[in-house]
Amino acid sequence: MKKLLAVLLVAMLALSALCVASAEAKTYKVGVSIYQYTDNFMTLYRNEIENYFKTLETDDVKYEITMADAKNDMAEQTNQVQNFITQGMDVIILNLVQTSSADAVIEQIVDAGIPLVLINREPLGDDGDESYAGILDNPQVCYVGADARQSGTFQGEMVAELENHGDINGDGKISYIMIEGDPENIDAQYRTEFSVKALTDAGYEVECLDDQVGNWDQTKGQELCATDLTTYGDQIEVVFCNNDAMALGAATAIQTAGRTVGEDIYLLGVDALAEAIDLIKAGEMTGTVLNDHIGQSHAAVDVAVKLLNGEEIENYYWVDYVKVDKAYAEANY
Ligand code: BGC
Fold first, then answer.
1. Ligand 1 in contact with 45 (CB < 6 A)?
2. What pTM, to 2 d.p., does this model score?
């Protein structure tokens, strides 16, 4: 009997200790809205946000993540943000659908007193160049991203570093097609501009055969590349894609057209998706640029946690790109 009582007592003590512990655990509510779940790169990014938040949990601190798909629809995202505000989120992480209409959404969140971490799509001012200094100057708001000028420059440099510098037919100029991402992301404009600039800055002559918007999408990338291969045939020496999803599509189109990467055409992407790395190793893509979704998602979560803890933050956090050609891919993946 005594033994039973002792066991009961121990059990009760353990239970009450547990209650005290759980009563003390603080759960922060985190609202995350992603511009579009079907985006290959943003899928890796959002999964890592969730994984990384989990690794930061302790007995005392928990994070309850509400993740929402804005389905590439700004109205839908505005609704999600309003819901986040009503639900009393402690912090919001936002991958904007439309950077051009960012100010209204940001203002709502700021007015509700909720700290905000913008990711992946940097809102720009009216002149398309200056950041929304007024809004981002807010001590509760920041942007985490990578400077897309660097990724464009790396793409151009990889072409310049080739033995023939991308001039396969030896006519003195590099003839290329450009497949662009959604213009709502400044990455698309910067990559387009700086990939070519790296070549002209190095003194090479370039010729743009076609420049179209593929919206970051693999199927669209394949369609655009296939049409250009039919129209321009052997004239195309370099295919620049603003991201790997579109480059994967272009790789299929190139194969179907009976062309051979590394011999009669070059193909460049950005992101370093696993599928693109495989193609680079197999010689079916010339190169890509690592868009570090791990570094960016961790930086975004770390700054969100700082905001939750009332710590001071910077308004901008930049994560570096890395040039990934065949040698780098073989050595590092
Ligand atoms: C990535 C793209 C992605 C886009 C989404 C870019 O930084 O390179 O793959 O589709 O972000 O906004």
1. no
2. 0.90
